[in-house]
Automatic annotation (TrEMBL):
Keywords carried by this UniProt record: Aminotransferase, Pyridoxal phosphate, Transferase
The keyword Transferase appears for this protein: yes
Top-level taxonomic group: Archaea
Protein name: Alanine--glyoxylate aminotransferase
Region Disordered, annotated ranges: 1-25
UniProt-listed GO biological process terms: glycine biosynthetic process, by transamination of glyoxylate
The keyword Transferase belongs to this UniProt entry's keyword annotation: yes
Residues in Aminotransferase class V domain copies: 39-339
Any GO molecular function: L-serine-pyruvate transaminase activity
Organism the protein comes from: Salinigranum rubrum
Family: Belongs to the class-V pyridoxal-phosphate-dependent aminotransferase family.
Amino acid sequence: MEKAPDVGELTPPDRTLMGPGPSDVHPRVLRAMSTPLVGHLDPSFVEIMNEVQELLRYTFRTDNQWTIPVSGTGSASMEAAIGNLVEPGDTALVPTNGYFGGRMQSMAERAGGEVVHVDAPWGEPLDPADVEAAFDEHSIDVFGFVHAETSTGVKQPGVSELTDIAHSHDAYVIADTVTSLGGVELRVDEWDIDVAYSGPQKCLSCPPGASPLTLNDRAMDKVLSREEEPRSWYLDLSLLEGYWGEERAYHHTAPVTNVYALREALRLVAEEGIEARWERHLDVAGELKSGLEAMGLEMNAPDEYWLPSLNAVRVPSGVDDGAVIAHLLDEYDLEIASGLGDLSGEIWRIGCMGYSARPKNVEYVLSALADALEAEGYDTEQVTAAPSDD
C-alpha cells in the first residue's frame, strides 16, 4: 500500500441505547475514561484494583475474596468461569431455555466436559423439579443456569432452591448474571452461588472491556487443585490469581482505561445504593411495560418471570420486526434489538438498564415505537377492554 488511508475524524452517531446492551454510559464514566493512563503495575493502579474489587463485592452482595474484573467482554468472564471450573471428564448440566444456555454448553464442551441438559421452553424459567430429576439421573459436577436470560426476557426465580439441589449432590453452581448485576436483585452469598460472572455494559452502564467475576473459596479450591491446566492460558485463574491476588505479579497488561470506567460505574452503584438501584430498575421498567401493553403489545415472559432489565416484546402479526428496528434507528437514533435463536423474528428486545433506565428514555422509546408501528399499519390506539362484571 503506497498511499495512506484518508480517514476522517471519528464521528459516531449519538444513539439512545435501549437494546440488550450496551446501555447508555453515564457521563461520569466517560470522563473517567479520559483521565491519564498509568502502568498496570503502578502503585496507584494497584490501589485502584483494590477499590474495584471492594466495589464489586458490594454489587455482587458477596464477601468472596476472589472477585475481579476479567480483562475482556462478558464472554471472557463467562469462559473464565466455565473453562476453569469444568475439567476434562466433568459432567456439566446446562439449560436449554435460552440462547446463553447454548453458549454455556459450547464452552463446557471445549473445556473437555460432558454436557447434559435441563429442558424448558424458551420464554420459561427452569423448573426445580426438572433440575432435581436431572441430578437424580446423572452424576453432575457443575450446574450452570442463567439468572437473567437476555434472549427471552425471563428472570429465573427461586435461585436458592436450585443451588440447594446442586449442593445436595455436591455439585458446583455457576450463575450467568450478565443482565442482572447492578439492576436486578442478586445475592451471591445469601443464595449460595459458587461462581457468578457478568458484563459491565448492561445494568452497570459501562463500556465493555473489564467484566465482573466472583468465586467462593470452595470453587477456587477446585480451580487451584486441577490435575490438568485449563485450556486457556489467558483466562487461567490460577495465573490470574498472581495478578489480582496479594502478589500483584505481572500476568498481562490490564485494560487500564476500562478498569477506570468500571470503578466509576461501581461508585455510582454504591452512591445510589444497591437495593435502591434494584427498585429504580423495577419502577422504570414497569412504566415501560405498562406503556407497551397499553399499545396492545404482549410481553414474551409472564409477569411472574418478567425481567425488568430486558423486556422481550412479542412482534404483532403482520408487522416486520426488522423494519421497525430500522425505522427507530434511522428516524430516532434509537436502538432496540430483534430476537435470537428460537425467537428470531418473533420478539423485540428492549433494554431498561443502568443509565438508560430513566423515565425520559421510556417516554422516548414508547413514542418512537408507536410511530414505527403505525408506519407498519399497526393501530397503537387499540386497548383490550376489561370484561364487565355484568
